[in-house]
Design brief:
This protein is mostly beta strands. About 10% of the residues lie in helices and about 40% in strands. It contains four helices and 20 strands.
Length: about 400
């Protein structure tokens, strides 16, 4: 597997030009490691839809996205149907679940919309769902949020949503957000992690083939708090997710893990930003993807910004992709921008390639058939991230999903 890696020196500075992304096909790679141009959007963050121009695909934040397949989410022509997308919350005792309006003080506290679709979702949702875990509460069972779309008339339902997950000081919780069915959905999800709290979120995109899902995830990490996000993307025609992390005080830690399996014709895009805006915080990003089939397209943009005030930062990000067939394309762009030399460490890496021939030879030399050997290699490729989930039924389901995907190829 070819790898491009860069651990910048403390003298790393802003770069003025746009990044030349790694456009990868069938085992070749060219990876850009430049400044976080992608964080400088076409307009400042805002709740106002009109503050953002209608994208045309030439903008830095939209240049990889097939706008014509967004079903009007980007230009305001997608009108909510009012029915067809159902959200169910299953929460353990002691957890509060509320439906609130956009005037609730918790809405937007973790971050404003950064593009037109996120602003459209904010302005169009009817009620936000707020799930609150009281301070010092340690949950032994996960909170499960199920988002399911139905299209009885043949056309997917259109919906806009807003979800807030709030943990009080020193609380601990695991949240599973499961997306299934068929829908055109734009949403914002806010994670408010109190001081000393620990939140793990598993977001599963297991949509039907025609679904379109665009979402911005905002996490605000409190003093000495920890946040772990596991994003799993399998289904959908177009999935474009924008996880963002910032810190409310010192000592916060964020881990962002991702797993995606992109099939023929699918577009799966993950655009991350970790904003180290506070001293002495940590972050670690690991995303892995496998691609198969003609016109399978995965995009990973990993932006880490270390602001001038964020002394003592320790951060690393990595993206790895496994190309299983010809005709698949990967764009992998790790970006790191450092505004202070007083940091513990910072680095990034990206790698894309085919199967490791040495691994295949090792397994086949021990009597394992070629097809089974390939399946074992792919399972091993994803095993590290599946183990991060920590919810046994979800882990088993994802391993079964990977096995099903591989049956079509190897």
């Amino acid at each position: 597997m070819a790898e491009a890696q860069n651990s910048p020196t403390l003298e790393s500075a802003r770069a003025g030009g746009p990044p030349s992304a790694g456009s990868t096909t069938a085992g070749t790679i060219a990876v850009a490691a430049e400044s976080t141009v992608a964080t400088r959007m076409s307009a400042p963050p805002s709740y106002d839809v009109e503050a953002f121009p209608v994208p045309h695909g030439r903008e830095e934040e939209w240049r990889f996205t097939p706008l014509e397949r967004l079903r009007g989410l980007h230009d305001g022509t997608a009108v909510a149907t009012g029915t067809g997308v159902k959200v169910d919350v299953e929460a353990p005792a002691g957890v509060t679940v509320e439906a609130v309006g956009r005037d609730d003080a918790r809405i937007g506290k973790a971050g404003k919309p950064v593009d037109r679709v996120a602003a459209q979702a904010y302005s169009a949702f009817e009620q936000a769902s707020v799930v609150s875990v009281p301070k010092e509460t340690v949950l032994t069972e996960p909170i499960r949020i199920r988002v399911h779309g139905e299209s009885p008339a043949g056309e997917p339902a259109v919906a806009y949503g807003h979800q807030v997950i709030e943990l009080g000081a020193f609380a601990e919780a695991v949240v599973v957000i499961d997306h299934t069915g068929d829908a055109v959905l734009a949403a914002n999800v806010d994670y408010l992690i109190g001081d000393g709290a620990k939140l793990t979120v598993v977001s599963v995109q297991d949509w039907d083939d025609k679904a379109v899902h665009v979402a911005q995830h905002n996490a605000l990490v409190g003093r000495d708090a920890s946040f772990k996000s596991v994003v799993v993307t399998f289904g959908g025609d177009v999935v474009r997710l924008h996880p963002r992390v910032s810190y409310a005080s010192t000592g916060g830690e964020a881990e962002l893990f991702g797993l995606y399996f992109t099939d023929a014709g699918q577009h799966q895009e993950h655009r991350l930003l970790v904003d180290h805006n506070t001293p002495h915080c940590k972050s670690n990003v690991v995303y892995k993807g496998a691609l198969q089939g003609d016109d399978a397209h995965a995009v990973w943009i990993g932006d880490v910004l270390i602001e001038a005030a964020a002394e003592g930062t320790d951060t690393y990000e990595m993206n790895r992709n496994l190309v299983l067939t010809d005709g698949a394309r990967v764009d992998s762009v790790p970006n790191l921008e450092i505004e202070t030399g007083e940091i513990v460490g910072a680095g990034h890496a990206s790698a894309t390639g085919r199967f490791d021939d040495e691994q295949l030879f090792y397994l086949m030399a021990r009597g394992i058939p070629a097809d089974e050997a390939r399946r074992l290699v792919v399972r091993g490729f994803f095993a590290e991230l599946v183990q991060q989930i920590g919810v046994p039924d979800i882990e088993e389901r994802l391993l079964a999903k990977i096995a099903t995907e591989l049956e079509a190829t190897v």
